[in-house]
């Protein structure tokens, strides 16, 4: 199955470079290009994109607002957004995860990293740039908007999960794959996948990246002090 990719960046030269790279792969194709967020939302829907490479900073409707629009539209529940940023870890990155992005990648990433990111996002996996520090992301997420991460409102959302689903959620928040989680919990990868899917359904998460956000914001997982 061919992965349908939409490029959203206000720099035409960068879009052209990404297009050449993506179209060179047999399992993916560029189905549209957008120079601002509003256009990206329209094209993502019109072209049935699977993955949107979205620049955070664009004139008019920026990448964050566009990602929220895509995430909030039931008709685009299958669309995955990978945010492109000049800065590997900053407040915008965390906001993009909250907005519904599957992850982020620095614009200085190697071509193989970019292509891998598209495939990972298309598969519904959480993508965190290899050069990003999960501890920093965790601290930003835990800070939230000044609220208490231990408040009942944040923790009660996990009440619907079984004990095993909570265990799996902790592992997902640690960035572990299904195979790694299966080995750690001594169960089969298929069992892990089932627990992940059930947790996503119960918590209303679009993908694994959203599970990571929920795990930190609910206080289930604590940010590291590194």
TrEMBL record:
A Gene Ontology molecular function term of the record: DNA binding
PANTHER family: TRANSCRIPTIONAL REGULATORY PROTEIN NARL-RELATED (PTHR43214:SF24), TWO-COMPONENT RESPONSE REGULATOR (PTHR43214)
Keywords: DNA-binding, Phosphoprotein, Transcription, Transcription regulation
Domain Response regulatory intervals: 4-122
Lineage, top ranks: Bacteria, Bacillati, Actinomycetota, Actinomycetes, Kitasatosporales
UniProt-recorded name of the protein: LuxR family transcriptional regulator
Source organism: Streptomyces silvensis
InterPro entries registered for this protein in UniProt: CheY-like_superfamily, NreC/VraR/RcsB-like_REC, Sig_transdc_resp-reg_C-effctor, Sig_transdc_resp-reg_receiver, Tscrpt_reg_LuxR_C, WalR-like
Modification 4-aspartylphosphate occurs at: 55
Pfam family, one: Response_reg
Residues covered by the HTH luxR-type domain: 154-219
SMART domains tied to this protein: HTH_LUXR, REC
């Amino acid at each position: 199955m061919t992965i349908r990719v939409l490029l959203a960046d206000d720099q035409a030269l960068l879009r052209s470079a990404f297009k050449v790279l993506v179209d060179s792969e047999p399992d993916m194709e560029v189905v549209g290009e957008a120079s601002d967020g509003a256009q990206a939302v329209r094209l993502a829907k019109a072209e049935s994109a699977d993955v949107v490479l979205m620049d955070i900073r664009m004139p008019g409707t920026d990448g964050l607002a566009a990602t929220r629009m895509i995430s909030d539209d039931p008709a685009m529940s299958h669309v995955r957004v990978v945010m492109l940023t000049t800065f590997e870890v900053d407040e915008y990155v965390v906001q993009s995860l909250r907005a519904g992005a599957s992850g982020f990648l620095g614009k200085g990433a190697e071509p193989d990293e970019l292509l891998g990111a598209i495939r990972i996002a298309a598969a519904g996996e959480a993508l965190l740039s290899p050069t990003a520090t999960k501890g920093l992301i965790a601290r930003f997420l835990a800070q939230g908007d000044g609220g208490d991460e231990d408040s009942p409102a944040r923790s009660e959302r996990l009440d619907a999960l079984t004990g095993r689903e909570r265990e799996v959620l902790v592992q997902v928040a640690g960035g572990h794959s299904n195979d790694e989680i299966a080995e750690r919990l001594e169960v089969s990868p298929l069992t892990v996948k089932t627990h992940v899917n059930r947790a996503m359904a119960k918590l209303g998460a679009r993908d694994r990246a959203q599970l990571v956000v929920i795990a930190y914001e609910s206080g289930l997982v604590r940010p590291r002090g590194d």
